[in-house]
Amino acid sequence: MVVGVLALQGSFNEHIAVLKRLGVKNVQIRKPEQLQNVTSLIIPGGESTTMAKLAEYHNLFPALREFVKMGKPVWGTCAGLIFLANKATGQKNGGQELTGGLDCTVHRNFFGSQIQSFETELPIPEIAAKEGGPPSCRAVFIRAPAIIEVGPDVKVLADIPVSSAVTANSSPAIQSEEELTKSEKKVIVAVKQGNLLATAFHPELTADTRWHSYFLKMEPETEDGTSAIASTSSVDLTFTGRAMIDLPIFQ
Q1: Is 242 flagged in the annotation as binding?
Q2: CATH node for 2-216
Q3: Catalytic residue list
Q4: 141-173: per-residue pLDDT in tens?
Q5: Is the pTM of this model over 0.85?
Q6: DSSP sequence for 46-88
Q7: 80 marked as binding residue
Q8: Residue ranges of domains in the chain
Q9: Is 108 annotated among the ligand-binding residues?
Q10: Residue 251 has pLDDT above 80, yes or no
């Protein structure tokens, strides 16, 4: 298992630190040809427009799209979620290029600007059932997007009441009453579709490694839907019993 981490901009070092704690080999990805040597990929949070411009400059988008189509596991956090979405709204003039593959519509900066970032306890029943530990995780939202619409094949892993976001953030960037109606007073902040995982928040900024463990157990699929690699059961990725190590930014 070799995990690639897109290292153009953003919190790629924090993801790498978690992977090292889990004993997983990783490679920083900056060039298209480097994707040939990894079994899965993390697209970190950061400034999505800047990341997109750098990816375009390095001609990474064709290789990223091919990586997704091959069925290899890809996880996008925050800006990475925007990368993976088939459609994004609330963008700057001209928008940005997307990798696509995830059947959803993402609203960029849904919760507001940088100073309106917040933390909250987020229920994660699927992750807790698979990885053990408490039924919620500490979710760090930094100038975060939100998923306002998903396709039929997308599994929702976590959502957040808009009222909770308003409590933590006095002026979320909800662009219209129509979008609020679509959200039914909740917005989706974590999803899974086939080989794709996406979170609007930053698990790499907490001591909870369960999201990374969950991702590392996602296996690539061949065209007929069967596993393309052997089991990774020899690697201990369980949450229960592992010492919690606080990171310097958030606890």
Answers
A1: no
A2: 3.40.50.880
A3: 78, 202, 204
A4: 998 999 999 999 999 999 998 765 544 444 444
A5: no
A6: S-HHHHHHHHHHTT-HHHHHHHHHTT--EEEETHHHHHHEEEE
A7: no
A8: 2-216
A9: yes
A10: no
